[in-house]
Amino acid sequence: MEKFARLIDELGVPSSQEDQIQKVHAYLSHCDEESLNWSVHLLRGHPFKRLCSKKELVTLFINHIEFSEHIFEQCIDATGDILEAISLSYPKPGKAISIELAVILKEVELVRSNKEEIDHFIISSWQKLALTQRYYFNKIITSTFRSPVSSSVLCAALAQYLNQPLDATTYNFHYVQDKTPLRVSKLRSEIKDKHNVLPIPIIEPVENNLDLNSTTWENHFISYQWNGVRCQLLTHDNGHEIWSRRLELITDKFPEFNHISLPKNTILDGVIIAISNGKILPKSEVRKRIDRKRITKKDLEKLTMSFLAFDIMRSAGQDVTGLTLEERLVFLQNLFAEMSNTDRLQLAENLLDSEFLTIQEIWESAKTMNSRALIIKAKNDAYNTATHWIKYSAKAQTTCGVLLYARRGEGYRSNEFVELTLGARQGSNLIPFTKVIPNLEEEERLAIRAFIRENLIERFGPVYSVRASIIIKISFDGVEPSRRHKCGLKLKNPLFLSWEKDKSQEDVISLEELMNEIG
Which domains does the chain have, with CATH numbers? Predict the structure, then answer.
């Protein structure tokens, strides 16, 4: 537990991806097998079943050492984190005992069914563990631990540890779906079923606000940036797999594609879109499907999911990534011409070959397709990550909101407000509509912190409700409907711009105006 806590502290300090990989690799190299499995399980962000809630932990803490609730509230105010306040307020152990992470987590599983045993186990662990270890122990048992590293960093570290290629490690890492915990030994195996089909690193578009009318585009492929989830569709001897750009294996989330008739050992690059009444829905509808644990018949009937293919990387076992886009498109078109059932599988067309006469007309039509960008590809480019697809986007919109809530950070950022909730006008009321991360100069940061403390209305743990008078200017890429948010909408990519000191609530956008922006 000591080594794991030290690693998480080190990863919490901003550093390069290469530094993070080396830190994780060094840690993995000095772990026993069981602790290694549990560490990878936690670092990959897989769930750990909660042993007790934060509220139950606070009650246990206060009753056990007969601590004043009033003083404890002040401790929370000083740290900004309930679990850290418990860790620091509990008496220091006379001599901290080094306990392996696996030993602690195994014991958690043994005491789950008995409340008295749970309380005894938690208190006993507090008495043995040093302060930092105690803090991460609290986060794990309350299921609030969040991994400080990305899956790409963890895969790279595991590839070094296992001494095997990164692509094979990455494939097995995401293919093995063990929940408690992941067995690292399984990642040493050869690629699943030896079909030699791996997700290929995809090309990411690069922002470029060029002049559409200043260039000739005859030798380019132009398409909308489709409002969906970018994926690779792989076929092999045992069926097919769908991998998202985040390298999530999401095959089981889309049973609609179970009967596709693609040749074996084929890899298509494309996007999954959700369609209802002939209209392309926001990307969030596809993400909802991915986030569901179980896909029901009702889910399948509710929306039509379609895979829109715009490139091919492997065709019936032949690697075509070295060919030009123009040559790859011939493979793709021939593939679709031979397919008998393409209800769920569509081929993206070059918009320059459609009814549009100019690229400006294509751009003006994008909004009708729920798209705010065009993807422009050179026909003579091969498929590799050194290739640059151009993304031409609409300029971000700007608006103003009024500060309603501010959330404090944790750990070394406990004295900072790391998230601001802004409100929009609805009649005489102010309704929260988005959250942004503040990007302030030191003087403004201190001024807002002082304002929040002086104008506090109510506190909800680390969240402060304040008097509405600070006006914040933000930018955003668009507005989507959302049933998860009380305001009924969600801003795409909201970014903090500035503190508008010369503006008042009259300059704040109304909810009705935002609703009108929904495509």
Answer: 2-141 (1.10.3260.10), 206-393 (3.30.470.30), 397-517 (2.40.50.140)
